[in-house]
């Protein structure tokens, strides 16, 4: 079971989002990476409104972060099964 509330708390702590401006700057940075790596996706995104782009980026962040939390949970379970990871 994924702890969604905990995931968002960790996201805030890990990524250091203290204000909407910080989040916006991070989205801009990742949009630049998107432009470099996925030109066809970027061309499609250029046709979208700022709100649609922000929603897209936040959705991708959420998906990736939830995958990370699921992997952390699996690792904890694996460590328990192996006797505390020893």
- Overall domain count: 1
Enumerate the spans where pLDDT stays under 50 for 5 or more consecutive residues.
Answer: none
Q: Total number of helical segments?
A: 4
> Could you report the average pLDDT, rounded to the nearest whole number?
70
Shape: elongated
Radius of gyration: 16 Å
The number of distinct β-strands equals 0
Residue fraction in strands: under 5%
> How far apart are the first and last residues' alpha carbons, in Å?
24 Å
Share of helical residues: over 70%
Largest sheet: none
Q: Which assembly state applies to the chains in this document?
A: single chain
Query: Would you tell me the structural class of the helices and strands?
Result: mainly alpha
H/E element string? HHHH
Notable features of this structure?
86 residues, 4 helices
Structure, briefly:
This protein is mainly alpha-helical. The protein has four helices and no strands. The longest helix has 32 residues, at 50-81.
What does this structure look like?
With 86 residues, the protein is mainly α. The chain has one domain. The protein is built from four helices and no strands. Helix 1 crosses helix 4 and helix 2 crosses helix 3. It starts with a helix and ends in a 5-residue tail after the last helix. The model has no long low-confidence stretch (mean pLDDT 70).
Topology:
Blueprint (H helix, E strand, L loop, with lengths): L3 H12 L4 H18 L1 H8 L3 H32 L5
Helix pairs in contact: 1-4, 2-3
